[in-house]
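Why predict the complex rather than its parts? Because the way molecules touch one another can change local conformation, and only a joint prediction can capture that. The input here totals 337 residues.
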Amino acid sequence: MSETKKVVFSGIQPTGNIHLGNYLGAVKNWVAHQEEKVNYFCIVDLHSLTVPQDPENLRFQTRSMAAMLLACGLDPEKSTVFIQSHVKAHAEGCWMLNCITPLGWLHRMTQYKDKAAKQESVLTGLLDYPVLMAGDIIFYDADEVPVGEDQKQHVELARDIAQRFNSLYEEEFFVIPKPVIPEFGARVMGLDDPTAKMSKSSADKRGHAIRLLDDPKEIMRSFKRAVTDSDNEIAFSNDPEKAGVNNLLGIYKAVTGKSQEDVLADFANARGYGDLKVGVAEVVIEMLAPIQERYHNLMADTAELDRLMAIGAAQAQAVSQPKVDRMKEMMGLVMPG
Ligand code: ATP
Ligand code: LTN
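Output of the joint prediction:
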């Protein structure tokens, strides 16, 4: 049976409060398809080190992310959930991939260009970030990588790296992965600025993001404050002027799973954007209540959380280390006797 199942790999950085964009763009879809696939979900702590981190905070955020992913519905019985740095094949194999990846490919990455432009001193790891990510994916022979729109270019680079290795060493050694991007929720925009994506790095800015741990009052307040426009038409639209309303409708659609027509029907009697904002806030609050309860229960027992992560790491290691060992052999390294 399992030979025919597609292999799925995805990752999330433990860089702070997980928000509605991460959930609707990525995690919700990971949870939804667990049964049909062979799944690996990774808390990519090594990726987080590509920008300076406070060590104690990173440790807390990593456990917190583990608890949150389980609270969102990832089931260790159905998915391998693990912490990237627990599986040595990722860092080791990244080096091997570095040595076949042209530097020009990395300089072209838009996320690198954006993040580097904001920093005075850019770390080597930030440029190398997509190579580490490529390894994450291809060491598991993943077919599918469910991510938000912003990660599409990185998955395409992973394809290029896999193809290059295959043509240098052995055709079909690596499976060529493809990005899987949801139709709605792929790009949730900031509530304070609907032209910029909702982002963890800005999640603590007032009114920017809905964090999954926000209490109902805060969620209602953030939605009520959301930037919209000056007319009163509730409609899906690509017009940049209407980006705020489009974002609210997109969130409502992704949360409820309703069709566009049904979404619009729900707001047919709305008296303006005020009703729209309250309606969206209500479905989000309802969706988050059970997730928050499970999260707090899991965080109350960190020993159990650590045990579950150790099981995930052992499963991941059993798949990725043999793959990286074969790469090392192909590239001419002497294997220890
Ligand atoms: P940072 O701001 O630190 O870069 P982030 O919010 O982009 O963080 P990541 O850990 O980089 O979060 O991303 C985790 C997953 O969430 C990825 O699949 C990414 O594509 C998705 N994602 C991130 N932001 C959004 C968004 N605004 N809308 C939809 N999906 C998103
Ligand atoms: N770069 C991704 C996180 C990430 C990832 C991965 C996603 C690291 N490795 C492998 C999918 C597959 C991000 O910032 N969202």
